[in-house]
Amino acid sequence: MNFPLLWIIPALPLAAVGLNLLIGDRLGKRGTAWLACGAVGLAFAFAVRAVLRLAGLPEADRTIVENAYTWMRVGDFSASVAFLLDPLSAVMCLVVTGVGFLIHVYSVGYMAHDPSFRRFFLYLNLFMFAMLTLVLADNFLLMFVGWEGVGLCSYLLIGFWYERPSAAEAGKKAFVMNRIGDFGFILGMLLLFAWGGSLQYDRLFAIAPHVFVKGAAAITIATLLLFLGATGKSAQIPLYTWLPDAMEGPTPVSALIHAATMVTAGVYMVARCHPLFLLAPASLETVAVVGAATALFAATIGLAQNDIKRVLAYSTVSQLGYMFMACGVGAFTAGIFHLMTHAFFKALLFLGAGSVIHALSDEQDLRRMGGLAGKLPWTHGTMLVATLAIAGIPPLAGFFSKDEILSRAFASGHSGVWLVGLVGAALTAFYMFRLYILAFRGPSRLSHEAEHHLHESPPSMIIPLVVLAALSAVGGLVGQPMQEGGHLFERWMRPVFEGAGGEAAAPLSPRTEWTLIALSVAAAALGIYGAYRTYLVEPGLAARLRERLRAFHQAVLHKYWIDELYDALVVAPVYHLSQRLWRFWDERIVDGMVNGVAYTFEGVSALLRLFQTGFVGTYALFFTLGVLVILIELGRR
Amino acid sequence: MIPASWSLLLSAVVFTIGVIGVLVRRNAIVIFMSVELMLNSGNLAFVAFARQLNSLDGQVFVFFVMTVAAAEVAVGLAIIVNLFRLRESVFVDEINLLKG
Fold it and tell me: What is the ipTM of this complex?
């Protein structure tokens, strides 16, 4: 049976977009919801089917390439819309469709009262299409199509409530920042094409070791440019400031795009290009350092934020830093593993936060929450699971993946990176439990209004929470450490990352490994205990700490003034330069030229129109005079 | 026999009268008649030359000119009639809407 295997997966959400555009107004909210969720659910089913088929193949040739059609062919160059399924894109594809489906279902409840219900699902489905194109693409060009597509959808969905100026601003900011990254991506892609002669992964990766000398400037520049693209999309230093602002979008969007899927595209891209990065040790080192720095930096900012979604946003930036850290030390499997578990628990955290916000009639400030545990039992239970998971408490998902990253970093000799990661882990546990305690424990600080309307969310929102909680709880078990021949996830990934640097690093002795595990659990426990002491047991302690660490608190509260710095260093000069260019070059020179031509013609015409009097007699006179002149001229010859 | 130059002189005089008529008269019908004068002065010149050169060509041309003149009169008069219906005037100096 030659039934479509891969192209159908992105095509389904696209078809839903088309149907929604054509007949969406006749479907009503119910129909739209069924259409949107059905398409993504079906895409998930097809993805499962494709992955099962992939798993049925022998380990050595677990790649399925499906050529949908040839896009263009110019000389030797040809680009096709071809899809590639290998263990890496299989994981991405399952995460995107699976978590995406749950979030679609959740959105039906969350957006139920929004007047732009249909537009929301239109964008959401379009996003699914673009994201699936990105992860399933078999060449850089098609990946770039998806890459830009998700950027567009991100922009549209951040600015979904465009009548709020802050949302429109945030959308614009995200788009522009992503463009900066994309610029790097394009340049990197073109350099690779210029030197490698192909944009298709397998060909380019096969030829790369012959074209590039390991560590040469060329490959280093190309991979650094690619990584610049990744920092834009995945919100790493220096291009991370758009992600916290992206929280202006509806919460399901934050969960889907700005936590679980789109922002991980950069990690995916680096992992996908690992044969290139391995040729450029300096680039890998940069990835590791940037990842570690971002992980710590964002975690400290997360300590003092009061908006529940912003805490989660900085947490996302920080966790993405961990993923890059893993890729940077060559532990690509660990990075992708963390990407997967992070998709589970971070999507759950965002959806839980959305459920809280929903219950409190759009209250997002942690200072006006508290004591919600009894009122929202389901939300509370699932949020607790996710918080424990991200804090890295065994045996929840986050523990396994984070621990693997840390031990890999240690094993590959990056002890500085490891230490930063460990401190980051303690901070993560602290700010996550701060969020949990401020929202669910302690006395209620709700406004009277919010207290009155307090209600648990509808089943369509609770069920995805429960499923994600289950995944966050057991999702890490595929990656238990210290197993003979590597754990399940590692064995699955082996065909892709065979022989990649850190993967092949000598395994640690069980004793070292146990010590590392104990240390990371201790760090998490320390963070949790700190938050517990500060925010629950000793109510005055938080204020005293704020007083004591005044400078630090001010710095993190204002996000190290990075936004202001960027405004002063980049935005303002560009703005003023553009203003000048507009006033001078555009209005004077360009418009002047166009208008000058028009004025010339106008003046000449004004003269000529004097001849057109409207009197037939005058015309006859001119005519006669003209004939006379001709006759005289002829007569003189 | 009357020399051809006399006929040509007459033709020139008639033509000039026609031109001046077209230029100075206000009444569209009179202008039209002046145009006819010009055409017929041309015819006269044709005939005169035909006789002088012993060729029938000129006379044949006259027939063509007369045909064209008849057609032109039909169209022209129709325009003038319509103009009169519209503006109740055939004076060309009163009709000057189409100007720059």
Answer: 0.85
